[in-house]
Design brief:
globular; alpha/beta; 3 helices
């Protein structure tokens, strides 16, 4: 968790969503953009239309923990925003599904080592 900071400001999210490269998994979507710093930035956005606050926060915790499991193998200098797919039922949100989806997205983006 040392080399990742959370994004909190709206302009940070808008910048990544507008200029970042789009990657899609079965459950989550990711926008990834290279930054000029030696740290990674992570942002998680779950739409209000998907579920009420308790379930949205649960999804955010699952996504954040999945990211921290992969963090050591991720190259530094990237900004990542994760979104939950609106068409996917929230009942399918398990840690293993999200983690596998995230690993596939990072492999497609070529920012992760193959040995995780």
């Amino acid at each position: 968790m040392n080399k990742t900071k959370m994004m909190k400001k709206n302009y940070e999210f808008r910048s990544i969503l507008a200029k970042g490269k789009y990657y899609s998994g079965q459950y989550i979507e990711a926008f990834i953009k290279k930054n000029k710093l030696n740290i990674n930035f992570l942002g998680i956005a779950i739409s209000v239309k998907i579920a009420k606050a308790v379930k949205r926060n649960h999804l955010k915790r699952l996504i954040r923990e999945s990211y921290y499991q992969c963090e050591k193998a991720i190259s530094t200098g990237y900004s990542v925003v994760f979104l939950w797919k609106k068409k996917v039922d929230i009942k399918k949100a398990t840690f293993k599904n999200i983690e596998n989806d995230m690993k596939d997205i990072f492999k497609n983006a070529n920012i992760i080592e193959e040995n995780i």
